[in-house]
Give the backbone structure.
Amino acid sequence: MKIDEMQDDGYISLFSKSGKQLVAKIIGRTFYDNDEYLICETNSPDNPVCVADVRSLNGQSIPVADITAQAVVEKFYDENPDLANNLFYIVDEEGNDICVELLDFIEYREKAYAVCIPHGDESMEVIILEVRENEEEEEYFSIEDEEELNAIFVLFKERNAENFDFVD
């Protein structure tokens, strides 16, 4: 990442490896392998969390290897668990990766559901997915039953009435 400019409000403008310009909010700093890194959040579904070498603040282009960036992010969130976001990727019907933010887990009729929103999407339309665990990981499945979706959404609204302004 190359940092293009730093603004006074904790945001920086930077370029991703693919050359895409991003505006990122600095959420913290950490040291890894004797180097200091900025951990930033963006509204880009392709780069929801990014890592920039602090030496980039003076205009140098200092690439951060993917494996280093991953280690830096893991270390940062281990040190700051209260800042850990709930972002993960799902695959849509067309095979595209979509970055979503987990809002809540709902238990309903002995099944688990994840209520999410697409990261960076201003519409705030929720996605409700059934969560099934296998031996290695959680898997997420779409729900076809409209009554089931509505029941889960009602539970979500009841549990989160203080956190969100719901529009009917």
In short: The chain has two domains: 2-83, 87-159.
